Task: inverse folding
C-alpha cells in the first residue's frame, strides 16, 4: 500500500547552486596554485617537493575518478536503491578522466622522463651510481633486478594502457546510461544485462590496472620494497574516498530538488553503513600488512615501515590511524550520526582528509632527505597547498560534469522504491 | 509473591500495521504512557508511535566490547610480561602488535554475546507467563498476521469504560479485556 508516495520532481537537473560550488572550487584552486608555485620557487630544492606533492594530489583525484568508475560498476552488479541514488554522481566522477590524465602528464614527464621523482629513472646505470655513493647496495640490486619493469619506457606504456582502457570504459558506461534512460521501461532487463556484462569484467580489469598503476606511480618510489596487498589497499582506499565524496555530494544537493525528495534518510543511513564497512576493511588490510611484516621482521621488508615510523614519522603514522580509522570508526558506530546530515558530513570530510594524510605518509618517506627524518621545510608546506589546488580544480570539473545530466536516472525499477515514504506501512 | 489479580489491560486487534500505528499514535497523543504494541514482525513506526525511541542494547554491546578488549589485552600483557615471559625471536615481551588480533576477537565476541543476552534480559526474557496469552485472538494472531495495541491497567489514566471507548473509536477488529 504505497499511500502518500512522493512524486518525482519535474526538475531533475542539478540545482543552480552547483555553479556557486564550482566558482568556490576555482577560487580555492587559483589561490592554492599561486601559493604552490611561489613555494616551489622559495623551496630551492629544484622543484622536488613540488612534484612529490603534485603526485599526492594526482593520486587523490585519480582515486575519485577511477574509484568512482569502480563503484559505478559495483552498483550495477549488486543492484539496490543506494546505487540508483549515487549513479549520476559517480558517472560525473568518471567523466573527469581527461583532467586526471592531464594531471598525470607532469608525473610521467617530470617524474619519470626527466627523473625528478623515481630513483630507478634517475640511476638506470646502477654500477656507476653505486660507485659514486648515490644509492646503496640494496637499491642498486633492486633497480638492476627490476629493470625490465621499472624503466621509463615500460612506465609510459603501462600508464597509457591503463588510461586508454579506462577511457573506453568511461565512454561506454556514460553513453549507455543515457541511452538506457531514453529507452522504454520493458527494455530495462536488456540494459541491466548489458551493464552487468561490462561491469563484471570491468571490476576485474580495474583491480589489475589499479594494481599496476599503484605499483608504478607510488610503490616504485622505493624500488627495494614490495607488498602484494599494495594494490588492494589502494582499491579499498579509493572506495573509502569515493563513498565519502558521494555522500558529501548528495547531502549538498539535497538542499534542493530533486535530491530533496529522492535522497531519503534510509538510503543515507545505508551509505553511512557502507562507509563503516570500508573503514573496517581499510584498517584490516593496513594492519594485516603491518602485522605480517612486523612478525616476519625481514631486512627486505621492515625498513619500509621503519622509514615511516622513526625520526618523527611515528607521529604521522599514529595520526594516520586516528584519522583513517579511529575517528570514523567510533563516530560511525552511532546510528543517529549516520542519520543526521550535518554530522555525517563531518565524518566524510575527516575521511577525505585522512586519504590525503595517508598518501603523505606513503609518499614523502620514500625520499632520502625525508626517510626517518621528518623535518619542517617549505617543501613540507607545499604538501598543504599543491594537492589542495589539484583537488579544487578537480572538484570544479566534477561539478561541471554533475550539471551535464539529470541527477536521477529514471529508467530503473528502483525509482518507485525510493519515492515511497520512509518506513512504508506494508 | 502474591498472585496478581484483576485486569491486566485492554487489548485491541487490528488487521493492518497502518491502523495499529495510527491508533498507537492517537493513544500516545492523548496521554497514554503504559501501553504496548505487538506485531508479528519488527515495526519501527509502532515503537516510535508509543514514544519508544532508543534502547540500551547498543550501550550494553559497547560496554561488553570494551570489557572483552580490556580482558584479552590485559591477559596477554600479564602472560607475556609478568606471568610467563618468553623470548620469541628477540621481540619485546610487550608486543602490542601481536596482541591486537586476539584482543580484537574478544572485543567482537564479548560485544556479540552482550548484545544478545542484554537484549534478552531487557525484554524480561526468559519469561514463563504473560497475561496477554490469556486472550485467544492474541495467541492465534500475534505471531501470524494480526497487530495489537494494549492499554495497560497500571496507567494512571486507565478507567475501564473510558479506555474501552477510546479503543473502539480507533475502529479495531475487536477489543478484549485481559485478566492477569
Result:
Amino acid at each position: 500500500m504505497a499511500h502518500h508516495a512522493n512524486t518525482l520532481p519535474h526538475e531533475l537537473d542539478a540545482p543552480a547552486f552547483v555553479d556557486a560550488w564550482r566558482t568556490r572550487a576555482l577560487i580555492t584552486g587559483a589561490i592554492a596554485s599561486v601559493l604552490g608555485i611561489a613555494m616551489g620557487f622559495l623551496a630551492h630544492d629544484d622543484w622536488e617537493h613540488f612534484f612529490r606533492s603534485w603526485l599526492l594530489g594526482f593520486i587523490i583525484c585519480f582515486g575519485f575518478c577511477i574509484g568512482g568508475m569502480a563503484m559505478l560498476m559495483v552498483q550495477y552488479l549488486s543492484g539496490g536503491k543506494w546505487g540508483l541514488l549515487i549513479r549520476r554522481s559517480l558517472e560525473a566522477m568518471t567523466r573527469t578522466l581527461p583532467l586526471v590524465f592531464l594531471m598525470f602528464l607532469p608525473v610521467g614527464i617530470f617524474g619519470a622522463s626527466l627523473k625528478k621523482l623515481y630513483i630507478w629513472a634517475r640511476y638506470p646505470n646502477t654500477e656507476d651510481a653505486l660507485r659514486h655513493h648515490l644509492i646503496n647496495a640494496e637499491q642498486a640490486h633492486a633497480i638492476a633486478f627490476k629493470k625490465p619493469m621499472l624503466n621509463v619506457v615500460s612506465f609510459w606504456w603501462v600508464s597509457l594502457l591503463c588510461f586508454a582502457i579506462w577511457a573506453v570504459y568511461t565512454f561506454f558506461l556514460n553513453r549507455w546510461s543515457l541511452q538506457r534512460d531514453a529507452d522504454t521501461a520493458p527494455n530495462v532487463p536488456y540494459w541491466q544485462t548489458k551493464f552487468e556484462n561490462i561491469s563484471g569484467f570491468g571490476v576485474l580489469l580495474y583491480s589489475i590496472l589499479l594494481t599496476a598503476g599503484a605499483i608504478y606511480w607510488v610503490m616504485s618510489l622505493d624500488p627495494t620494497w614490495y607488498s602484494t596487498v599494495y594494490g588492494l589497499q589502494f582499491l579499498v582506499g579509493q572506495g573509502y574516498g569515493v563513498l565519502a565524496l558521494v555522500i558529501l555530494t548528495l547531502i549538498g544537493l539535497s538542499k534542493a530538488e530533486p535530491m530533496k525528495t529522492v535522497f531519503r534518510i534510509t538510503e543515507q543511513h545505508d551509505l553511512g553503513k557502507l562507509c563503516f564497512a570500508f573503514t573496517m576493511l581499510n584498517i584490516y588490510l593496513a594492519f594485516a600488512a603491518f602485522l605480517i611484516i612486523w612478525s616476519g621482521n625481514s631486512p627486505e621488508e621492515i625498513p619500509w615501515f621503519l622509514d615511516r615510523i622513526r625520526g618523527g614519522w611515528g607521529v604521522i603514522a599514529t595520526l594516520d590511524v586516528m584519522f583513517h580509522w579511529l575517528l570514523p570508526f567510533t563516530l560511525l558506530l552511532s546510528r543517529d550520526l549516520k542519520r543526521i546530515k550535518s554530522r555525517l558530513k563531518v565524518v566524510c570530510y575527516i575521511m577525505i582528509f585522512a586519504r590525503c594524510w595517508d598518501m603523505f605518509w606513503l609518499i614523502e618517506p620514500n625520499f632520502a632527505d625525508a626517510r626517518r627524518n621528518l623535518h619542517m621545510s617549505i617543501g613540507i608546506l607545499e604538501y598543504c597547498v599543491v594537492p589542495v589546488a589539484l583537488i579544487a580544480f578537480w572538484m570544479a570539473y566534477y561539478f561541471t560534469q554533475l550539471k551535464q545530466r539529470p541527477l536521477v536516472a529514471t529508467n530503473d525499477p528502483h525509482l518507485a522504491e525510493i519515492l515511497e515514504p520512509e518506513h512504508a506501512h506494508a | 509473591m502474591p498472585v496478581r489479580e484483576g485486569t491486566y489491560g485492554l487489548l485491541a486487534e487490528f488487521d493492518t500495521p497502518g491502523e495499529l500505528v495510527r491508533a498507537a499514535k492517537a493513544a500516545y497523543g492523548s496521554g497514554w504512557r503504559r501501553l504496548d504494541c505487538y506485531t508479528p514482525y519488527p515495526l519501527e513506526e509502532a515503537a516510535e508511535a508509543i514514544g519508544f525511541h532508543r534502547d540500551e542494547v547498543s550501550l550494553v554491546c559497547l560496554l561488553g566490547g570494551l570489557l572483552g578488549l580490556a580482558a584479552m589485552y590485559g591477559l596477554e600483557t600479564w602472560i607475556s610480561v609478568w606471568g610467563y615471559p618468553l623470548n620469541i625471536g628477540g621481540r619485546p615481551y610487550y608486543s602490542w602488535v601481536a596482541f591486537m588480533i586476539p584482543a580484537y576477537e574478544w572485543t567482537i565476541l564479548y560485544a556479540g554475546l552482550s548484545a544478545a543476552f542484554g537484549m534478552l534480559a531487557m525484554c524480561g526474557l526468559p519469561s514463563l507467563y504473560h497475561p496477554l496469552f490469556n486472550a485467544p485472538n492474541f495467541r492465534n494472531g500475534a505471531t501470524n498476521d494480526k497487530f495489537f495495541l494494549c492499554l495497560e491497567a497500571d496507567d494512571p489514566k486507565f478507567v475501564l469504560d473510558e479506555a474501552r471507548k477510546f479503543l473502539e473509536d480507533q475502529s479495531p477488529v475487536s477489543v478484549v479485556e485481559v485478566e492477569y
